[in-house]
């Protein structure tokens, strides 16, 4: 567990499958959805996407991203999710081997996928869960020594 990330946040992230990702270039935001896997050892979100996509093209100019992960269940009155910031990069060399192991162990049916793997190195998380934490309460985590 890196930088004392609360176990409730880790458990929540591990249970979900889709994140919304936002990039911004020249004051023009763009958002998309991606399947992801979570690497708790490195505190990475790992996803796959083609180089030609808009969000990956945006990374060439600004690799600082934001996003959300939220629980999708029947309407129950429970609000649960995270907002995050981080730096996103293509997984290369030793990082690629780790990312590949984590991502494809979660999604074995995608093993033949040729799209690159991408790492979001998390720098900030705000966790909301009104049933677990109470209404209006949040857990906030900030990475030490961010870029």
Notes on the structure:
- The chain is an alpha+beta fold and 147 residues long.
- It has one domain (7-142): Electron Transport, Fmn-binding Protein, Chain A (Pnp Oxidase, Chain A), CATH 2.30.110.
- Helix content is 20%, strand content 41%.
- It contains 3 helices and 8 strands; from the N terminus they run αββββαββαββ.
- Strands 1, 2, 3, 4, 5, 6, 7 and 8 form an 8-stranded antiparallel sheet that branches.
- The protein is globular, with a radius of gyration of 15 Å.
- The model has no long low-confidence stretch (mean pLDDT 91).
Q: Major sheet, described briefly?
A: 8 strands, antiparallel
Structural class: alpha+beta
Principal-axes geometry comes out as: globular
User: How many strands?
Assistant: 8
Q: Please estimate the helix content.
A: 10-25%
Shape-level CATH architecture = Roll
* Count of DSSP-assigned helices: 3
Find the CATH topology: Pnp Oxidase, Chain A
Give the total of domains. 1
Uncertain residue segments? none
Distance between the termini: 19 Å
The SSE order reads HEEEEHEEHEE
Mean pLDDT score, rounded?
A: 91
The CATH homologous superfamily is termed Electron Transport, Fmn-binding Protein, Chain A
């Amino acid at each position: 567990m890196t930088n004392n990330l609360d176990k409730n946040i880790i458990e929540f992230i591990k249970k979900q499958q889709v994140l919304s990702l936002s990039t911004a270039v020249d004051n023009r935001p763009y958002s998309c959805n991606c399947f992801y896997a979570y690497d708790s050892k490195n505190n990475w979100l790992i996803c796959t996407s083609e180089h030609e996509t808009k969000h990956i093209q945006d990374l060439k100019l600004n690799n600082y991203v934001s996003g959300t992960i939220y629980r999708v269940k029947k309407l129950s009155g429970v609000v649960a999710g995270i907002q995050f910031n981080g730096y996103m990069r293509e997984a290369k060399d030793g990082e690629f081997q780790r990312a590949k192991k984590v991502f494809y162990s979660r999604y074995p049916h995608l093993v033949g996928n040729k799209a690159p793997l991408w790492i979001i190195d998390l720098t900030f998380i705000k966790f909301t869960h009104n049933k677990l934490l109470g209404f209006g309460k949040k857990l906030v985590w900030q990475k030490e020594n961010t870029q």
